[in-house]
Design brief:
- The protein contains 10 helices and 35 strands.
- The strands form 8 sheets. It has an 8-stranded parallel barrel, surrounded by 5 helices. Strands 28, 29, 31, 32, 33 and 35 form a 6-stranded antiparallel sheet that branches. Strands 5-8-13-10-11 form a 5-stranded antiparallel sheet, with no helix packed on it.
- The protein is an alpha/beta fold.
- The structure holds alpha-L-arabinofuranose.
- The site of alpha-L-arabinofuranose has 11 residues, from loops.
């Protein structure tokens, strides 16, 4: 099909360069004909898809653990081990105290967590306590006058081990910044809750959590957890800074839970949603394909609550019987349980409380069903060389539609016999490739399925993309908007990266962070601009003498009397544009403009220079119906015009 896009498009860069330099090469240097752009405000062509921009994330680059999911304790269930010792946990022996620690595979607090951490305390007293500490996800961020809520499961070998002292301690000074105690553990596994409140401390990320006792004996621990204040005060919730950054992108949906993370390396490592609901102690954790264990704190309900908190809808990707190392399940009886899991999952999301899985969701504290319109079947199934996708898709599609005829299903690759409602295209490009690709949809055949660009990005810069990438992204987004009769959804990927050493598995991710702060890349700000200024209709436009690396889109919101013009100048020289806005009774003076630009395409933002490039607001003096405008080099500009309709 003409609109099928491979993951990495081979660009005919040489052809583009050649055409750019031909006049000079031939000694015919002359001023190029001026670029003119006319927008016909009274000639709407089609609606902008109301779901055009959304979010896509998965457990990659410590996106949830060590990222959005606000848990501060790393390896809280001691599953990740090195030489039988849990990683990120260390023995504490104060003063004369003596002890040892190790994993006990014979005792755990639940069937899901059959092992735990055992601490043997040989010698301890009040001056010489013994216990363990956790160093968090590259530290633990603490702020002044803040309450941290914690919990753990524990048992002891006798009932006289004494209270457990819990402290937040600064790595450098060794000072305890907050301390509390939990009651003496009993000889049975039980949960214990605690809170830690900081005083007038300085904010920092170099802190750790310590748990100690002051008597000899044996102590077992599991699911040791600590949360800062979360977005909307959700229990087991998300970091407010990252939620706010996503909100500023004006998304309309969240594609969840992946990506490769949906599929897992092996079938057993798929996103098995039934293992990821309910109390944390009942979640076994599982290996993410991005080479670390997922705590599964971001379970299905947490994903859905995240959509609720951002007032957006889930686009639910269901596991479709293919995993990344190549194992697949053929359509037929063996696939049936997986299809049933998907149908149950949809019921968990949308069913009322009289349904089996709706009742489970209600029991977990969310009686209200979540809205759902799109279900994606699998992820990137072109990797399945067995050719089984079409029959697998059909089995899922039929079962889902039989029960939920109103749902639209999304295929992850072109199908031969079946026409899906929507097809998911993915592409990761260099900036030059994005420019080459930015007009492709203008010529795509409209008789195929609608398109969901479920993963896309211009990849320039690491760990987060630079201005060059932002320009490529903006060029692509103009094409999404110009063609939003065809492209109904688009979501950049990956969204998040923990910028600490070892945090990144995939270069160029939209938003970077450490334990305490976060920043948006220039590409992030391009997304913010495109999401913020979006009308509901695409007007007719006419462009003449388009130079290389110039891209535009226009959308109108007639009810509000607004037209949003987005322009991208990816070249190293300023770009004059003769603008004509026709078909309006009046164009108001003083249009608002936001510009994201830099002197060098390699310019970028970092965790230590987070606002190096951000959009700058100004007012356009010339905003009559026809005027000349000059875009700076390497710039993205969005202009919001106010207009009055023709009588
Ligand atoms: O976004 C990173 C990965 O790229 C996704 O997990 C996968 O779907 C794609 O190959």
């Amino acid at each position: 099909m003409p609109h099928v896009i491979r993951k990495r498009i081979v660009l005919k860069a040489s052809a583009i360069l050649l055409s750019t330099f031909v006049p000079f090469a031939c000694g015919l240097a002359q001023s190029p004909a001026p670029l003119t752009l006319e927008i016909q405000l009274d000639k709407p062509l089609y609606k902008v898809s109301p779901t055009l921009y959304g979010l896509m994330t998965e457990e990659i680059n410590f996106s949830y653990d060590g990222g959005l999911y606000a848990e501060m304790v790393r390896n809280r269930t001691f599953g990740t081990r090195s030489h039988a010792q849990p990683v990120h946990w260390y023995l504490v022996e104060k003063g004369e105290g003596i002890g040892s620690m190790g994993i006990d595979d014979a005792s755990g607090p639940s069937d899901a967590l059959p092992s735990s951490l055992r601490i043997d305390i040989t010698k301890a007293d009040a001056e010489s306590p013994v216990g363990v500490y956790n160093d968090g996800y590259w530290g633990m961020a603490l702020k002044p006058d803040t309450t941290y809520k914690g919990s753990f499961y524990a048992k002891a070998d006798s009932s006289d081990l004494g209270a457990v002292t819990i402290s937040l301690v600064n790595d450098t000074s060794g000072a305890a910044l907050a301390t509390t105690t939990a009651p003496t553990p009993t000889t049975e596994w039980k949960p214990y809750l605690f809170t830690l409140k900081t005083g007038k401390i300085s904010s920092s990320t170099n802190n750790h959590l310590v748990l100690t006792v002051a008597h000899p004996g044996k102590l077992w621990l599991d699911v040791v957890s600590l949360f800062p204040p979360t977005f909307h005060d959700r229990e087991n919730g998300n970091r407010p800074d990252l939620m706010e950054m996503m909100s500023a992108m004006h998304p309309t949906f969240l594609r969840l839970p992946g990506g490769n993370y949906l599929e897992g390396d092996e079938i057993a490592d798929r996103y098995d949603w039934k293992n990821m609901i309910g109390p944390l102690v009942d979640r076994p954790t599982h290996p993410s394909p991005w080479r670390y264990q997922s705590s599964d704190g971001m379970g299905l309900l947490e994903f859905l609550e995240w959509t609720e908190d951002l007032n957006i809808e889930p686009v639910l990707a269901v596991y479709a019987g293919y995993s990344l190392h190549g194992a697949h399940i053929n359509a037929g009886p063996f696939l049936k349980p997986f299809v049933q899991d998907a149908v149950d999952e949809i019921e968990f999301v949308t069913g009322d409380i009289r349904t089996k899985w709706g009742a489970v969701r209600a029991q977990l504290g969310h009686p209200k069903p979540f809205p759902l319109h799109y279900v994606e079947i699998g992820n990137e199934d072109w990797f399945d060389k067995s050719g089984s996708y079409e029959t697998r898709f059909t089995q899922f599609d039929r079962a889902i539609k039989a029960q939920y005829p109103e749902l639209k299903t999304i295929a992850t690759m072109p199908l031969k016999q079946t026409r899906p409602d929507v097809q998911d295209d993915h592409y990761y490009l260099r900036a030059t490739e994005s420019y080459a690709h930015a007009t492709q949809y203008d010529h795509t055949d409209r008789s195929g399925p609608k398109i969901f660009v479920g993963e896309w990005a211009t990849r320039e810069g690491s760990p987060t993309p630079d201005l060059n990438a932002a320009l490529g992204d903006a060029a692509l987004m103009t094409s999404f908007e110009r063609n939003s009769d065809l492209i109904i959804m688009a979501s950049y990927a990956p969204l998040f990266v923990n910028v600490n050493p070892g945090g990144m598995q995939w270069e160029s991710d939209l938003i970077g962070y450490d334990a305490g702060s976060s920043y948006g890349s220039p590409s992030y700000y391009a997304q913010v601009l495109f999401g913020k200024y979006l009308g509901d209709s695409v007007p007719k436009t006419a462009v003449q003498n388009t130079p290389p690396r110039f891209f535009y889109s226009a959308t109108t919101d007639t009810a509000k009397g607004k037209m949003y013009l987005k322009m991208v100048n990816g070249s190293s020289v300023p770009q004059p544009v003769a603008l004509k806005l026709s078909g309006a009774a009046r164009i108001a003076a003083g249009a608002v403009m936001e510009t994201l630009s830099g002197n060098d395409p390699a310019e970028t933002n970092t965790i230590s220079d987070p606002k190096h490039l951000v959009p700058v607001k100004s007012t356009l003096k010339e905003s009559s119906a026809s005027f000349n405008h000059t875009m700076p080099a390497y710039s993205i500009q969005v202009i919001e015009f106010s207009f009055e309709k023709m009588p």
